Amino acid sequence: MLQLAGFWMALATFLGIWWGHVGVRWLDAHSPRIGPPALVLTIAGLGLNVYALFAPTLTLAGVSSIVGVTLLWDAFELFRQAKRVRKGHAPANPANPRHAAYLAAGGSATTADLLNREPTGRPVTPHRSPWRPTERPSDVYRPSSASTD
User: Fold this and answer.
1) Tens digits of per-residue pLDDT, 64-102?
2) Which DSSP state fits 89?
């Protein structure tokens, strides 16, 4: 008989990490407040971990726990992503009121996506990125549904 538990747990891990990376960036860019999505992720993560304690099979318990812990981590990452946006390490979405406030404050926040460039072998500052000061910020922020970063 084939043992598929490892396959399902590996798939849950891979998809959880992928969603975590893409989902946290998307939620941060589109949520005016971080608290509500973080609360939903925390409740879902805790719920899946409690379910894993009583799951009828080891495979279901493993997949539930992997996804549950990933969701808990994603809730934590939402707050870290907000700090990255404030520091200019991730692009701000000018259409999001929270990000617009970061941009208006005149700090390091930028709409430039510093990952959207050819590798140069050295650190990149906003003036070396593909973004040009002559562009309006709303023209620069182009979130991609097929993000590879």
Assistant:
1) 999 999 999 999 999 999 999 998 889 999 999 999 999
2) S
The C-alpha torsion from 30 through 42 and 20 to 89, rounded to 10°, is: 60
Domain spans of the chain? 14-113+124-140
Q: What's 128's DSSP letter? A: G
Which residue from 134, 131, 136 is spatially nearest to 114, judged by alpha carbons? 131
Of 99, 98, 96, 130, nearest to 112 (Cα)?
130
Nearest to 38 by CA among 79, 84, 70, 10: 79
* 90 and 141 Cβ atoms separated by less than 8 Å: no
CB atoms within 10 A of CB 97: 10
Please state the pTM of the whole predicted model. 0.75
